[in-house]
Amino acid sequence: MKLLPIFLLASSSGFLGLAQVQAQDLSVAGTVGTQGLGVSFNAGSDLTFIENDQIQWHFSLSGYGIDDAEDIKVHKNDYEADVKNGSAQAGLNWYPISQKSMKGLFLSAGAIYFDYELDGTTEDDQTIHIGDIALTSKQGVQLKTDIEHTSMAPYFGIGWGNRLNGEAGFSYRAEVGAFVALSSAQVDVELVNHNGEVSDVDLEKERLDILDEQEYVKVFAQLDIGYQF
Questions:
Q1: Cα distance between residue 130 and residue 16, in whole Å
Q2: Any idea what the Cα angle at residue 209 is, between residues 109 and 84, rounded to 5°?
Q3: What are the tens digits of pLDDT across the range 8-50?
Q4: To 5 degrees, how large is the angle CA 148–CA 151–CA 152?
Q5: Each residue of 137-166: pLDDT tens digit?
Q6: What is the C-alpha to C-alpha distance for residues 226 and 110, in angstroms, rounded to an integer?
């Protein structure tokens, strides 16, 4: 989580400069979603694709940290783990429809910078899978896993709400989307209480399976409730 504060500070300063220019069409909101709790900013722009559309600059910061979280699924096993995640999202929201009943619809695109960490051990009341081996809880073997994943990721989304109209008042914005990391995670695995039940080949296969899981396209959802200036 070392690089994130520097990135967030630099990004925030740049966006606040933009907000001063576009203060007549600006919204600030609190956010909650799969990336955690945070704050978001939206500002109007002079960009346009088609007649009567609206294009906004969007920026948000969010994160969470949970110690001793239970039932965290990693590959095929449930873990008790400490989990941390921080992210910064910057992009454009495009409102293509001016018709009153649909003017809240927007499409979004941009980039997410995220910093994710997991440090956990498999829960002891389950059959665990390591590579091609299955071990029952009676065998007492556990798997300790550390994941660190810091990356930029392009995102695309769709949402509703917060079309800026130059009038002050409360607003909301909901968005769902998907992103894929541009760089790989670092994954380390270690056996606990084992007596030769798992080979090095199976342990490495499990590490690679966890690594592959981190490469999947990830889905996010976010709800903003704030105020338009």
A1: 48
A2: 55
A3: 444 444 444 444 444 458 999 999 999 999 999 999 999 999 9
A4: 165
A5: 999 899 999 999 999 999 999 999 999 887
A6: 21
CATH number at residue 221: 2.40.160.170
Mean of the pLDDT values across residues 179-206?
92
Residues with Cβ < 8 Å from 124, sequence gap 6 or more?
A: 137, 140, 142
| 79/55 Cα distance (integer angstroms) | 43
C-alpha distances (whole Å) from 157 to each of 57, 107, 111, 184 are: 14, 6, 11, 23
Pairing type for strands 36-44 and 54-74 reads antiparallel
Pair 196, 155: CB distance under 8 Å: no
What are the backbone dihedrals phi and psi of residue 112, each rounded to the nearest 5 degrees, phi first?
-120, 130
Number of domains in the chain: 1
Phi-psi region of 169 (alpha: psi -120 to 50; beta: other; left: phi over 0): left
- Distance CA(81)–CA(143), nearest Å, equals 12
Residue numbers of the domain that contains 103:
4-228
Q: pTM for the whole thing?
A: 0.82
